[in-house]
């Protein structure tokens, strides 16, 4: 890979609970880059939580805001960007990230996703039914899109530092 490519924003994508925010923060520290979380930026811009936005306006409205915020974050040229699990599924966002950033798909087993998302039950998409079934379906539906990411790292519930080391290895 060319050095130029490594200069691009590293954009973490993958399902809820895979560790995009925690791993992203550590990755940024390890690379001495800044870190920004897209969901936090959406909440700041809207002055509401993601759950409140879903509840008040629905998912389509959230996706519009998410698309705009990620476009802005790409413009601002942050070092490491964590995205919400659905962001990279939007064709427009995906095209932008693939063209101007380096997408890193964090992938792990279903049990880990279920366990981690159950610790803090704030995700509106997991409240509409059985979280395991929903995550299983989302994994199946979304994996083909996530697979378009330039880098693919399987974490399977291992320590975040190992995931960080794997990503850095992939950049070399
Ligand atoms: C979503 C994932 C969430 C958040 C929203 C929708 C999704 O982010 O953006 O609840 O569609 O997968 P995390 O992946 O950070 O939980």
From TrEMBL:
Q: Which Pfam families match?
A: SKI (PF01202)
Q: Which GO terms describe its molecular function?
A: shikimate kinase activity
Known SUPFAM superfamilies for this protein? P-loop containing nucleoside triphosphate hydrolases
What taxonomic ancestry is recorded?
Bacteria, Pseudomonadati, Pseudomonadota, Alphaproteobacteria, Sphingomonadales
Please give the family membership noted in the entry: Belongs to the shikimate kinase family.
Give the main localization category: cytoplasm
Cofactor requirements of the protein: Mg(2+)
Which of this chain's residues are annotated to bind ATP? 17-22, 123
EC number, as in UniProt: 2.7.1.71
Q: What does this protein do?
A: Catalyzes the specific phosphorylation of the 3-hydroxyl group of shikimic acid using ATP as a cosubstrate.
Catalyses which reaction? shikimate + ATP = 3-phosphoshikimate + ADP + H(+)
Q: Where do the annotations place Mg(2+) binding?
A: 21
Asked whether the UniProt record includes Repressor among its keywords, one would answer no
Q: Which UniProt keywords apply?
A: Amino-acid biosynthesis, Aromatic amino acid biosynthesis, ATP-binding, Cytoplasm, Kinase, Magnesium, Metal-binding, Nucleotide-binding, Transferase
User: Which PROSITE patterns does this UniProt record tie to the protein?
Assistant: SHIKIMATE_KINASE
Identify the species of origin.
Answer: Qipengyuania psychrotolerans
Q: Where does substrate bind?
A: 39, 63, 85, 142
Bound how, and how many: what does the cofactor note say?
Binds 1 Mg(2+) ion per subunit.
Q: Where in the cell is it found?
A: Cytoplasm
Q: In which pathway does it act?
A: Metabolic intermediate biosynthesis; chorismate biosynthesis; chorismate from D-erythrose 4-phosphate and phosphoenolpyruvate: step 5/7
Relate the assembly described in the record: Monomer.
- InterPro entries assigned to the protein according to its UniProt record, in alphabetical order: P-loop_NTPase, Shikimate/glucono_kinase, Shikimate_kinase/TSH1, Shikimate_kinase_CS
Q: What class of enzyme is it?
A: transferase
* Name listed for the protein in its UniProt record: Shikimate kinase
């Amino acid at each position: 890979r060319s050095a130029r490519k490594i200069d691009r924003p590293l954009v973490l994508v993958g399902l809820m609970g895979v560790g995009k925010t925690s791993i992203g923060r550590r990755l940024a520290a390890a690379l001495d880059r800044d870190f920004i979380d897209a969901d936090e930026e959406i909440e700041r811009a809207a002055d509401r939580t993601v759950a409140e936005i879903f509840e008040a306006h629905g998912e389509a409205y959230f996706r519009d805001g998410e698309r705009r915020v990620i476009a802005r974050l790409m413009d601002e040229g942050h070092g490491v960007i964590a995205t919400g699990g659905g962001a990279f599924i939007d064709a427009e966002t995906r095209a932008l990230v693939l063209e101007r950033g380096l997408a890193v798909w964090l992938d792990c087993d279903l049990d880990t996703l279920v366990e981690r998302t159950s610790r803090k039950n704030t995700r509106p998409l997991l409240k509409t039914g059985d979280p395991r079934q929903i995550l299983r379906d989302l994994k199946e539906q979304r994996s083909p899109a996530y697979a378009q990411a330039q880098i693919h790292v399987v974490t399977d519930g291992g320590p975040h530092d190992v995931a960080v080391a794997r990503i850095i290895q992939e950049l070399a």
